[in-house]
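To assess whether the prediction recovers the assembly geometry, we first specified each molecular entity separately, as shown.
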Amino acid sequence: MKSLPEKRRSIMAATSLFLCMMLVCTFVSRAAASVTVPKVTKSKPLTKVIEHRVQLDGNVVQNRECAVIVEPDLTVESVYVSEGQQVEVGDVLFALDLQKLDEAILKTSQEIEKLRLANEDASSQQSITDQKQAAALARAQEDYDTATAAGNQTVDDAAQALARAQEQLDAFYNDAENGSGETEREDTVREALQADLDQKKAQAEALQAQWDSLSADEKAEQQDLENELESAKADADAAEQAFNQYEQQQTSQKNVSDSEKETVLIEEYETREKAYQDALNARDANQTTANRAAQDAKIGTPTDSTVQTNEMDMKLKQLSLDRLQALKDQGGKVSAQVKGVVIKLNLQTGGLTTQTAAVTMADLSSGTKFVAPVSQEDAKYLSVGDTVELTTASGGGKITGVTISSISTDSAGSTASSSGAGTAGSSGSLENAGGAGQETQNVTVLLPQGELTVGTHAKLTFSRQSERYPLCVPMQALHMDQKQYYVFVLQKEDTVLGTVYRARRVDVTVAEKNTELAALEEGGVVEADEIIVSADREVEGGAAVRLTDSKGGAETGK
Amino acid sequence: MTKKHNRQMHAKKYIIWAVLFAAGFLVCYPIFFLVIGSLMGQVELKEVLGPVLSGNGGYVNFPFMPLFPTLRNYVGVLMDSPEFFVMFWNSVKTTGAILLGQFLVSVPGAWGFARYDFPFKRMLFTLYILLMMMPFQVTMLSGYLVLDNIGLLDTLWAVILPAVFSTFPVFIMYQFFVGIPKAIIESARIDGAGELQIFLIFGLRLGAPGILSAMVLGFLEYWNLIEQPLTYLKDQSLWPLSLYLPNISLEQAGTAFAASLLTLIPALLVFLGGQEYLEQGIMAAAVKE
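The predicted structure of the complete assembly is given in tokenized form:
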């Protein structure tokens, strides 16, 4: 065990060592903290005006264009200008092949002639058709009349025959009812037969009586009586038969002659009746046929507009012919009608002209305009009528006081601004079709006469000042996190180390901003807040920060 | 007979040893726990202390050795947190000032009580004892009002001054001063020493154990002061080390252990340094003339 002084010494040594170590660690920990804590600069929100400067690069283009059009399918002999060349009024642009031109003229006139002939054919055809139709109609009418007359005649004849037959039949029936004297003649024969019959009958009967009076045994003996009886019966029968036969014959003869007559008459009547009916039917049929023929003849012919069509075609071809003729008169040379610059040549030497414009020219006489593409964002700050400034890239000078005449979405050069050469300060047309969803739009500024030539590059500058915003912070102070803007506000906090600053994240909404300033809306920060503008390392919400030395040094306590 | 007696003696010794060892282990276990915990990483601590601190039931199963020992907690406390050191030096300042004040105030007081008689001495002494026995909470409110009136609130003096005039060291030193034999003092007086000389030469030297033991006890008390700073100090930059982590959450467990251990070291050193004085003092107090 150590002695007291030694032990005391060692304890003192240990204690002082400990205290030294703590001292060292104090400095080390503060040094470490100063490295990790971000140094920031601060500022309060200020009342400022946000200025939006828009700078656009664009070109000067012609205000108007014109097109030179010639008939298609003509051969180009030579082209005298090239793209970008300036031409005066009357300068020859290109020449057409005269031979081909003549051929074209000939072809066109021939086509016109063909159409004319076709028209004549068509009209003659039409008249003949008409005549045929009239004739058919007349004939049909005649047929009808004929059919009617003949038919009527037949019908009348048949009617007469029928009437006669009817008469005969009636007469026959009348005779039959009134009785007959012809039957007396046959009576003698009939009487003779009758007498014969009676006689034989009596004989038979007598024999019969005789036979009946005999007894059975006697009947067997009297064989020849039986035979006599038999023969007598037979004779009687025969006589009866003959009588009946004769009667029948007479009757049937009478009937036959009657019925024959009747039949004949009836047949004749029926025949006549049938003939009459047939005549009627025939007449009606013929009439109907003739009627139908007439009706058919009355139906007209379909319309044929070939003539009109051809006439229209002829008109067009005539116009074309006139143009070709005019070209011929010019000698096949096409010259410029206005002073301008050739923009586009749609011709090839030796090729054919097309339906589209052969030469597109910029019309210099109508002035120039400046066109620049502008992005959707910048376009927000521009509106029609704003006064802008143009500077040429080559340092030619500034043009001030010109205004925007239109902001549109279609391609450069084709906006229809109607105000011609704008004088300084005039406002242009109100065509402000900013298409939503389009990325770039075009800003057009009409230039005063004679200012800049076509093709010059120039810069448009415009600055617009917004209203005064009470809470403006530098853009550096604004941060974004998934579409939400926020700033860091300095907050003093009492900690063990004294008064330290903490960065507190405050979500804000931006009313307006440009590249330097952002105007914040109320509700996020207030005017008294101190906002962290810049930091030497990334600041997180809630982290401790300190001010940079130039602003008064670190304010951490001991 | 001696052998048996010897054996009995040995056995007794061992039994006593065992009991003392057990008691000692129980007392030391929290420190052991601290040391192990301060070397554990956060994940492991979360796993081990989860049942206690996160409120899900279960029992803590604290291992004897960390699975993945790390010095991260110490680095975190010593290198990365300036607050710790601010508080550390606050504690050092406070405790140092208090002890110095107590030395200047209590020692003469105790000497006076011990060696001199004056009217109302008994009453005053009884008052002193009464005050010594009163807990802080009783005088907290009145103390607050007085300090506020004086204007010392929110300064370190609010903690230092009441402690300086504490009556406890007086009492302890009184015991020691009383133990100094009258004869020496008398002889010194006869030799012509003045009261101050007697006090300075005899009192301080002979009562040194008492003074030092009072200082040690005082250090241990004032190094761990919690209530006074919490009540009287609003400014966090004045807080002592004992208030470094008033709330220990699961995330801060490792740091808390390391900080606690570092807080323990000065107290340990002081105690080790002043231990023999304590022993001496106790022994001396037992010896009565």
